[in-house]
Design a protein that fits this description.
By secondary structure, the chain is α/β, with parallel strands linked by helices. The protein contains 18 helices and 16 strands. β14 and β15 form a beta hairpin. It binds ligand ME8.
Length: 504
């Protein structure tokens, strides 16, 4: 079982915002889960440097583009670390290994007869880094996404014969109905292809920042013709001396938001076919996380600094909020205030108190000893494990976490219904009291394992408070996993009260 997951590589014209943190964190949940199930995983993220907008920001700051990129790469490298994303490699498109590979890749397309020279005369939106037709702009010639004026470009470029790939792409889509997920994104991509494909320029003249084309060094690769190739190039140099393409291509899942669907679901598979590679296994296109009803976009200046949220609530709480705040896949609007509510009501109350009560009762009533006792388990945990795994295979991150949380609440109801404090009053009930306490520890153990991909710091803390093994193997999401053990003490709060005001 191989599972290779990528996030988009983000533009470095500005610092990371919460939208980038979102894709990175959710990607990490999917990868950690597959790892729990024993898959051989590879997780790639990184930055896209050779954009016109990056070059312009560098110029505004009076820096050489590379110097600017080197400086701003620092907070971008910190993003996966701060989100506790277990990446295997962080790619920068200015890496020598990437540049070499892109030249080789484009040369293969050229040798295949798919590249020709022509004049591009048309509009370009620097915000989107995309050539735009007149119909795609507003009446005033603005890009509808960035609300900035598209620029008129007239230059001799190298074009990719995308039109020649229309039938091949349609055949690919028809053969593989799960090529793009969710369904409505598949339909969007397929109808774009069916509507007719226009060749597009893969090079830019007059911009010194970028990777020179091997057959025409006077031009640099168009930023998308450079950036998309990262998903393959990284495999050739991420581990020196190894060619990871053999292991992980085409077992790749690309995670991205709807803004870049066309590049990933149409242009990229065609480029791969042209260069003689297999198309990716699957693309998952998620929606936008909207804060206060507006897309969080660098270009709109509505920036929320994700690193600050992590400083206040911890990465687990931010990850938890991201997975639950909106239904993954759909667009959704969420408030930053929601983090605090979920932290207090769900993390501290539902989960934290369950652990505190359980451990305190074992310490108080059973002197810290856990015994199987005699009580029917209240939950079908293996059934939960199968359900969550099936959901995560479909990238239903929110549904999977909701399913786990239902069981967290069910265990709380079980405590109320069984009232161990009543059972403890009478020695005759000890077997039942033991059984109820065992079911609580057993349930919490399995739920901690199931929660580990979402909250990788919290899960081991729960297991350790219960004196249970910290092994996160997915087989442990079942009934009867908890070991009889002594020495359980009342646990420290999992999610202590935070006195800081919520960030604005
Ligand atoms: O497009 N909600 O980079 P980019 C959810 N360099 N996700 C969001 C988001 C939001 N509000 N805002 C951003 C590029 N994202 C190219 C990609 S890949 C070969 C090149 C996430 O910095 C989401 O994953 O504009 C989206 O697709 C990506 O950031 C765009 O990042």
């Amino acid at each position: 079982m191989r599972f290779y997951l990528t996030t988009p590589i983000y533009y470095v014209n500005s610092t990371p915002h919460i939208g980038h943190a979102y894709t990175t964190a959710i990607g990490d949940m999917l990868v950690r889960h597959q790892r729990q199930r024993g898959a051989d995983t590879f997780f790639l993220t990184g930055v896209d440097e050779h954009a016109t907008k990056v070059w312009r920001v560098a110029q505004e700051q009076g820096l050489e583009a590379q110097e600017y990129a080197d400086r701003i790469a620092v907070p971008w490298r910190e993003l996966p670390e701060r989100m506790n994303a277990s990446i295997d490699f962080f790619i920068r498109t200015s890496d020598e290994g990437h540049k070499r590979f892109v030249r080789d890749f484009l040369q293969r397309m050229y040798d295949n007869g798919d590249i020709y020279q022509d004049v591009y005369a048309g509009w370009y939106c620097v915000g989107c880094e995309e050539f735009k037709s007149e119909e795609e702009l507003t009446e005033d010639g603005l890009c509808p996404i960035h609300l900035t004026k598209a620029e008129w470009i007239e230059e001799k470029n190298w074009f990719f014969r995308l039109s020649a790939y229309q039938d091949k792409l349609l055949a690919l889509y028809d053969e593989r109905p799960d090529f793009v997920r969710p369904d409505f994104r598949y339909n969007e991509a397929r109808s774009f292809i069916a509507g007719g494909l226009r060749d597009f320029s893969i090079s830019r003249a007059g911009q010194p920042w970028g990777i020179p084309l091997p057959w025409d060094e006077s031009q640099v690769a168009y930023v998308w013709a450079d950036a998309l190739v990262n998903y393959l190039s990284a495999l050739t140099y991420a581990r020196p001396g190894e060619d990871l393409r053999e292991s992980y291509w085409p077992a790749v899942h690309h995670l991205l938001a709807k803004d870049i669907l066309r590049f990933h679901c149409v242009y990229w598979p065609a480029m791969l076919l042209s260069a003689g590679y297999e198309p990716p296994q699957q693309l998952f296109v998620h929606g936008y996380l909207l804060l206060d009803e507006r897309k969080i976009s660098k270009s709109l200046g509505n920036i929320v600094e994700p690193l600050e949220l992590i400083d206040v609530y911890g990465s687990d709480a931010v990850r938890y909020w991201m997975a639950r705040a909106i239904s993954f896949g759909q667009d959704g609007s969420a408030s930053i205030e929601g983090i605090r509510e979920r932290y207090e009501n769900e993390l501290a109350n539902d989960l934290g108190n369950l652990l505190s009560r359980t451990t305190a009762m074992i310490a108080q009533y059973r002197d810290g000893s856990l015994r199987q006792g005699d009580a029917e388990p209240p939950l079908d945990l293996a059934g939960l494990g199968a359900d969550v795994a099936e959901r995560l295979d479909r990238f239903d991150v929110t549904g999977a976490l909701d399913a786990v949380w239902e069981r967290v609440r069910a265990l709380n109801q079980y405590v109320t219904a069984e009232a161990p404090w009543q059972l403890a009053k009478d020695d005759a009930n000890h077997a039942r009291l033991d059984g109820v306490l065992y079911n609580l520890v057993d349930g919490l153990t399995a739920l901690a394992v199931a929660l580990a991909p979402f909250m990788p710091e919290t899960a081991p803390r729960i297991l350790s408070a219960l004196n249970q093994s910290e092994d996160l193997a997915w087989e442990r999401v079942r009934n009867g996993v908890a070991e009889e053990i002594d020495g359980i003490a009342a646990a420290q709060p999992l999610f202590p009260r935070i006195e800081l005001p919520a960030p604005a």
